[in-house]
Every structure is written in structure tokens, then in C-alpha cells.
Amino acid sequence: MPASHPDPADWKAPQPATAVTFEMPENACDCHTHIHGDIGDFPYFAGRVYTPMSAYPEEMAALHQKLGITRVVIVTPSVYGADNRASIWGMKARGETARGVAVIDERTTDDDIAAMHKDGMRGVRLNLATSGVADPAVGRARFEAMAARMAGFGWHVQIYTSLDMVVALKDLILKSPVPVVLDHFAGAQAALGVDQAGFKDLLDLLESGRAWVKISGAYRSSASRPDFPDTAPLARAMIAANADRIVWGTDWPHPDSHAKAGVTAFDLRAFQDIDDGMLLNQLPIWAPDAATRRKILTDNPAKLYGF
After folding, report:
1. Smallest Cα–Cα separation from 276: which of 228, 213, 223?
2. Which end of the chain is more exposed for a tag (fewer CB within 10 A), N or C?
3. 3-state secondary structure the chain
């Protein structure tokens, strides 16, 4: 059974502590967020690997007001399996400024996908990392099946995985019938730098225009808290490879999905203490040119998500 819910006055989704220090472009978009409703209203998937706190649409709205962000992409987190109701709830609360990325399985019908498209979903997430898929053969089979199915709907396939898996999928991504979006620096690790195995393959994919990368969730690539400055060489290299295929996101509310000794999948976990204002202020370091930042924050999301 899930642990009892702590007093929400004491344990809430994080809000920025640092003011944004550069001018945000009009219609800037946070391209990677999650909504978690109350467990009673939106039950978590029995096969989940962690249990997060709630994170409400009004908390997300407060986050974006502080950051100067207008648009948002809500991604269904792994804890819901293929149940996208919480994400759709969050999208409806936001209105026309929201789009979404769904999770589907073999039970999801074409009618379900069509209905979600009307609700604002524009892609499907293939969550290989959280589900522990490291076998290239399994990853390739799942990607091929998902890309073939999405081709009829005009949706993209978003993949959360390691850089090793990106390399294993490279040939398939280059001939994919749909756009491919790679989460969270495509799994590249800041400590290994731009010469790490597979990074050149990632740059090749960006240069080809066949893949997009979210420079999001820097704390997944770096342990250099609080602002993760060692991600800068990775971000700069990816932007230099193809600024037209880069989008940015917070990964709010920063769930902690890592395995921990003595903590079960059903024990309620606090979110990570991440200052999204501080993280957003890294963007001018990664992209000093305002026109490039406008591409990353506004123009590219508008194209990818259909704003």
C-alpha cells in the first residue's frame, strides 16, 4: 500500500528560488513537465518503480509565471503506465497553451489516439530508461513498432534512454517515418565530456535533422549541484550541431526515480530540490545569442508540438 500523504503545506512541488536574468522570448515553452493528481483520483500504475508526491496544475502555473513561460508540454510519467488522464487533466487546466506526450500500450486503440490528439497530445513516449531496457534488440523492436504506428497520426516518438541505446537506434532514427525526440540530453553524461562514446553519433543525428534533443533535466546528466555547469559543453555542442532541433524543458516537478536501499516502489518520495530559475539561467551560457534562444524556447516547440 502507498505510504500516507504528508501534509502538503510541508512537502510540495518545488518553485523557483532564483529570478530569471535574461529576457524571455514571447511564447516561450517548457517542453518537459509532469502532472501528478491525487492518488485517489488518478491511481498510479501497479508496476511503477517509484511513487511521487502530487504536483498540481496550479503549482505548474505558478512555476511558469515566475519563469516567464507561456506554453507547456506535459509528458505522462512512468508511474501512470499507459493511463494519460492526469496529463490530459493538466492540459485542460492550461488550455490552448498546452500540448502533451502520451504513453500507450497494446490496449490503446486508434480511436484512443484520435481522442488524445483532440485533447492536445502530439507524441508518444518510449520510456526505455525507467523500465530498465538496455538490450539493443528489445529497444530496436519497440522503437520500430512505435514509429510505424505513429506514422498514421502525425505524432513523434519521444525516447528516454541511454546514449548507448541511441547509438543502437541510430540507423532506425535516420530512416524513421516520424520525428524522433531524445529526452534529457539524450542520456549523455557531463562528466564524460564531448568525447564520450556515442556523442558523435548523437551530433550526427542532430545534423541530419532526423532527431531532436531536449536539453532538459540537467541533473540527470550531472552531479554538480546546484546549477550543473559541467553540462555546458554538451549543450553547446548539440546547439552548434543543429539549433533547429533543440528544445528546452524543466522536467518539473523533478521526481526521484532512482532505486534506494530500504525504499520500496510504493513508498512516497519527495521531489528533488531543484531551482528551475537557476537552471533556466544556464541557457544564455549554452546559447549566448538571443535569436538562438528564441529558436530553442519558442520557434522549435511551435513546430514540433503544433502551437
Report:
1. 228
2. N
3. CCCCCCCCCCCCCCCCCCCCCCCCCCCCEEEEECCECCCCCCCCCCCCCCEECCECHHHHHHHHHHHCCCEEEEECCHHHCCCCHHHHHHHHHHHHHEEEEECCCCCCCHHHHHHHHHHCEEEEEEECCCCCCCCHHHHHHHHHHHHHHHCCCCCEEEEECCHHHHHHHHHHHHCCCCCEEECHHHHCCHHHCCCCCCHHHHHHHHHHCCEEEEEECHHHCCCCCCCCHHHHHHHHHHHHHCHHHEEEECCECCCCCCCECCECCCCEECCCCCCHHHHHCCHHHHCCCHHHHHHHHHHHHHHHHCC
The mean pLDDT value of the chain amounts to 94
Q: Give per-residue pLDDT as tens, 134-155.
A: 999 999 999 999 999 999 999 9
**Largest alpha-carbon pair distance within the chain?**
50
How many Å apart are CA 150 and CA 138, to the nearest integer? Answer: 18
